[in-house]
């Protein structure tokens, strides 16, 4: 099973992204609390793409692919921004109130595995693996 949807790189689309993730999670054995955590993590990742990848330009796109197997759900956030590094996805532990602090900590807390896949010279695929409860 796989759900795929493309959104424009506009902050007003974050509401639609959250609704898409909630709908996709209905097919999985997650508690309401876990669904809320997943929604926040995907929302944070997409907001980072819009803010830091597309620099608030509304001309970009974000594709979200949600799939699963017997053990976990996989949420893939795809963009066509300049490529980033794993270091940029590592939370800073010194001060959670500084950029790169709380949002990245949230993403890494919710997902058992966070993997960055640079895509063909341009773009990034961010995979968030969340085990079923």
Describe this structure in words.
With 133 residues, this protein is α+β, with helices and mostly antiparallel strands. The protein has three helices and five strands. It has a five-stranded antiparallel β-sheet, covered by helices on one side. A hairpin with a 3-residue loop joins strand 2 and strand 3 (72-79). The longest helix has 22 residues, at 32-53. It has helices spanning 14-25, 32-53, 102-110, and strands spanning 2-8, 61-68, 72-79, 113-118, 124-131.
Give the helices and strands, then pairings:
Blueprint: E1 2-8, H1 14-25, H2 32-53, E2 61-68, E3 72-79, H3 102-110, E4 113-118, E5 124-131
Helix pairs in contact: 1-2, 2-3
């Amino acid at each position: 099973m796989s759900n795929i949807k493309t959104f424009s790189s506009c902050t007003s689309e974050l509401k639609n992204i959250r609704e898409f993730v909630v709908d996709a999670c209905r097919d999985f054995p997650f508690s309401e609390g876990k669904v809320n955590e997943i929604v926040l993590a995907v929302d944070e990742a997409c907001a980072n793409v819009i803010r830091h990848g597309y620099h608030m330009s509304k001309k970009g796109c974000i594709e979200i692919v949600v799939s699963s197997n017997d053990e976990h759900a996989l949420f893939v956030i795809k963009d066509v921004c300049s490529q980033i590094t794993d270091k940029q996805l590592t939370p800073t532990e010194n001060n959670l109130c500084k950029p790169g602090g709380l949002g990245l900590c949230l993403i890494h807390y919710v997902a058992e595995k966070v993997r960055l896949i640079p895509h063909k010279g341009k773009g990034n695929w961010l995979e968030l693996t969340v085990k079923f409860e």
